[in-house]
Amino acid sequence: MKVLSVASEIYPLIKTGGLADVAGALPLALKPQGIKTRTLVPGYPAVMAALGETTALMDFEDLLGASAQVLEATVAGLDLLVLDAPALFDRAGGPYLDTDGKDYADNWRRFAALSKAGAEIAAGAIAGWQPDLVHVHDWQAGLLPAYLLYGDKPAIPSVMTIHNIAFQGNFSAGIFPELGLPAHAFAVEGIEYYGMVGYLKAGIQTAWAISTVSPSYAEEILTPEFGMGLEGLLSRRTLDLHGIVNGIDTDVWDPAIDPLIHSDYSAADTSARIANKRALEAQFGLHEDDDPLFCVISRLTWQKGMDLVADAVDELVALGGKLAVLGSGDATLVAALREAAARHPGRVAITVGYNEPLSHLMQAGSDAILIPSRFEPCGLTQLYGLRYGCVPVVSRTGGLNDTVIDANPAALASGSATGISFGPVTLDGLKRAIRRTIRLYREPETWAGLQTQGMQSDVSWDKSAALYAKLYSSLLPKGSH
Ligand code: ADP
Q1: Disulfide engineering: 130 pairs with which of 124, 252, 366, 432, CB 3.0-4.6 Å?
Q2: Is the CB of 21 under 6 A from ligand 1?
Q3: pTM of the entire predicted model
Q4: The CATH number of the domain where 440 resides is what?
């Protein structure tokens, strides 16, 4: 089976969040299922710089007003199609934001171009290669199935994956004439969304199937609380909506061979974790002692409950805990966490920024990772935590709910507990969870059981890749694959 995947970021080339991890890991996980994926990504500077030899497969003279080429390249085992359109993607800032942290004013054009190019490729524009199915990720690729639906080519099966419904790509109706879609596409049953053009809405409306990144989130987004306005549309497509939890790349994230940590260890022998803890404490300027060390590795936003962390710090320290934070995001949250660190020198520290190597050491050296998200489509850091024996302390929502088994008395007694989960997501709820975690930490045998049970959970892509393969097959003509 040949699949065209279309994503606006892909690990290890360009990453702002979990989407990149999935876009980078799923093609490799699908290979053993006989599925060959090519991934179309924008030619940002970081992507162009990572390409070795490339071959130009096709040209666009006028792709939403820009000239562009599609280059073929293989990087890190991934078969890429790179949309090289310097006017759209050769910029100094990030994938979506300029150097001042503002959305690029022409994001609508940049990602309509990605979708349009993807639709042409899906329809057979590259000589000798046409996919059996297209898999589009998030709003940045949301217009693609609409371009297919309203185009004049034969229908091609499509799957739209929602990684976070909070990011919808809604733009003013004024852009519509520039998208190159027929006038009747601007309608409720097309891409119109409350008088605007909705890219995610378009994908949800026009893709053959929709998936999201955990079964719990697939349920939650049918409600007004989590659906962010799209719950009505999704509720009309429940039979086409699938929740498939993300896995992680267990080769990149393996404490037994991880070159980014201080000392390697495994579930069979976790004694080297302490050397990682010492290295981490030293790096963060924290006291080197046996008190429980919590960490946060996160975008610092309201979604992630980081305001609650800032408010719970004093209690965490009073209970004898320490905290190391790695993240970037809202200036007010950064300031609040910096103030907390200043109040508790040696016990609380923050590193602001994005630092992949440090995130590995933090999983290897911290005792627990705090993830008090208000909503969490899947979440990856709890999966890394499980794999590294860094016990996840999570709110009971979305993928956190589907991947962490709370250390309640029954789960502890049966040896199935892998973390601590709490709800509702309030300051009190988080404080209670921290108290419970520290109590468990002070029972070494129970704690060791939690750690090893977590390390033995299956966080690989194997099961989920099989579910995606099944979903793909269900959309193809019977007997073709
Ligand atoms: P989201 O995609 O909503 O940000 P996820 O938990 O799904 O949340 O994925 C976040 C990914 O980004 C994880 O791989 C996590 O380790 C990584 N990450 C987040 N913040 C940082 C940071 N400051 N430095 C390094 N890695 C980070």
Answers
A1: 124
A2: yes
A3: 0.93
A4: 3.40.50.2000
